[in-house]
């Protein structure tokens, strides 16, 4: 019977029987969780009660066909009651552990779901980031129309505007465009002035042509009017 008790002890706790194992200050090389330690302590107390009953029965063998004395029956009943009490305690703690395990599994599943959602969101953000990188690269390589504007060379422009920050390409380009616009506006004003002057000269030339044409007509009329006088002079002096 003692050998059977030793085997049972080894199967439950990994320890060989001496009958009793102390639960106060109990520690386990693997299990560190306080709730599981409490379950192990209850299991050890139950084991000690069972081994104690087995040892008591070994010490008080029952002859065949006989009955235990009354005090032995009382002791056995007391030990049975203690075993049932420890068993109920162990079942309660085991139930609490299983409930906690179930709750932990649910929380773990929820946390895993949250992680999966965040991982999916991260993948979406990475995908969007790659798209934005492509868009940025396309914008950098885009052939803007202002790159083809016939502006004066930047070195010449900086000689005209040395106060500008050459590091800021946007401000520099806008200043060059504004300068080009001002220069073209000035040239356009000059062109308009020259065009006006040209039109005035053309108008003056046309007026002179008209005056000369009128003079020719008047001269022809004068010559025609002078013909009789000339003929008279010719007759008088022949």
UniProtKB/TrEMBL annotation:
The keyword Nucleus applies. It is found in: Nucleus. InterPro entries: THO_Thoc5 (IPR019163). Keywords: Coiled coil, Nucleus. One of its GO terms (molecular function) is mRNA binding. It holds the Pfam family FmiP_Thoc5. One of its GO terms (biological process) is mRNA export from nucleus. Residues 177-218 form a coiled coil. GO terms for cellular component: THO complex part of transcription export complex. It comes from the Eukaryota. Belongs to the THOC5 family. PANTHER family: FMS INTERACTING PROTEIN, THO COMPLEX SUBUNIT 5 HOMOLOG. This is THO complex subunit 5.
